[in-house]
Design a protein that fits this description.
5-stranded mixed beta sheet, 44% helix, 17% strand, globular
């Protein structure tokens, strides 16, 4: 674990140090053929809690993006799914999936290095997903087909969960 001096605001060189950690991790796994040039770090109270990278190709897992891997790692280190008070650093602007994971993890600050347009120039296709969300599924029906089924069976799970006062996350 890396510790940075605790102060209200971090200096530019400290932000760059953290981003360099994410970049170095991304370079290592990229050169091993594990995934793209994406790395992420999570910081809490001046401590680097997690540093991870894209491992989609190694893990055969399309969700194994750097940000998601870092969130998983930080959750294990901190023993919680709630990463309130943490900041995330990413070598690239988070894709829609990663942005959703960041929001679900309650991370309120994200620092990124490269833009979605720069990722697109090297072949990554996040932009069509953004367009899908903006235009709505009715305008892009070929991307994902959604059909409701089994409601009567599954609504009972939802009702049981609500009745038993399970934790909402």
């Amino acid at each position: 674990m890396i510790f940075l001096p605790r102060r209200k605001t971090m200096r530019t060189d400290e932000h760059e140090t953290i981003m360099r950690l994410a970049s170095e991790q991304a370079r290592t796994t990229m050169e091993q053929g594990f995934g793209g040039p994406f790395g992420a770090a999570i910081v809490q109270d001046g401590k680097v809690i997690a540093v991870s990278s894209n491992s989609v190709l190694k893990d055969h897992d399309p969700t194994a993006h750097a940000e998601v891997n870092a969130i998983r790692q930080a959750g294990k280190v901190l023993g919680t799914h709630d990463l309130s008070g943490c900041a995330l650093y990413a070598t690239g602007y988070p894709c829609p999936m990663c942005m959703s994971a960041i929001i679900w993890a309650n991370i309120k600050t994200v620092y990124f290095a490269c833009t979605p347009q720069e990722a697109e120039r090297i072949g990554f296709r996040d932009d069509f997903i953004y367009r899908y969300f903006e235009s709505g599924r009715d305008k892009e029906p070929k991307l994902v087909r959604l059909a409701q089924t089994g409601h009567d069976v599954c609504i009972k799970l939802f009702e049981e969960y609500a009745k038993n006062h399970q934790q909402v996350y």
